[in-house]
Structure to design on (215 residues):
């Protein structure tokens, strides 16, 4: 699933530009149609993987340049959200809000979390095909629109506190010389014992990669 053109329309280029570099933000502000989720399935993907990846692009990537406004709009429009206590596990200890997200008319598998005042968007999936989602995710973030350069981070295989195997992959996008980078991160597990099997995030980082909250 390659959505290079769609990402080019919505990425916050001005925020990524390094000091002293004149990277024009025209692509972000141009009056062009909003990106649509890719319709073609990535090789080896299934409907659940497509759902996660499409929502990741539509909710987190598409709105990354205006997350505060996106969160404010959801609150203003009174989109049904999780009670504060139920939202806590999805916010990893941060203040903010979380919303259950329907996909193809079905509710219950996906949760969007938007920490308050953070350049961070989190999408969780209770059940997911870890292999298919990782493949699709890496395909999405493999190529960065110019002048940005994509750099894949090292993959990590770890055990959670309750001995569940997890795998994290990531990639950063930034123009050469920029001090800030846009980081895409995915953590998955194939364990049926896990409450959450996938977590995708988009964040703005400065000095080093952030660590995903555990699924």
């Amino acid at each position: 699933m390659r959505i290079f053109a769609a990402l080019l329309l919505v990425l916050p280029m001005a925020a990524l530009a390094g000091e002293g570099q004149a990277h024009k933000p025209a692509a972000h502000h141009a009056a062009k149609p909003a990106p649509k989720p890719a319709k073609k399935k990535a090789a080896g993907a299934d409907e659940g993987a497509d759902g996660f990846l499409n929502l990741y692009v539509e909710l987190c990537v598409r709105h990354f340049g205006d997350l505060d406004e996106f969160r404010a709009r959801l609150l203003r429009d009174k989109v049904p959200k999780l009670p504060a206590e139920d939202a806590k596990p999805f916010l990893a200890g941060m203040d903010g809000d979380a919303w259950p997200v329907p996909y193809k008319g079905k509710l219950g598998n996906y949760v969007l979390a938007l920490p308050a005042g953070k350049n961070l968007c989190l999408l969780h999936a209770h059940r997911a095909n870890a292999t298919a989602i990782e493949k699709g995710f890496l395909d999405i973030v493999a190529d960065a629109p110019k002048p940005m350069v994509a750099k894949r981070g090292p993959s990590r295989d770890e055990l959670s506190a309750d001995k569940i195997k997890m795998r994290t992959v990531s990639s950063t996008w930034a123009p050469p010389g920029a001090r800030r980078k846009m980081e895409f991160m995915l953590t998955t597990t194939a364990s049926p014992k896990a409450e959450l099997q996938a977590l995708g995030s988009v964040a703005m980082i400065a000095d080093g990669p952030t660590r995903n909250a555990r699924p």
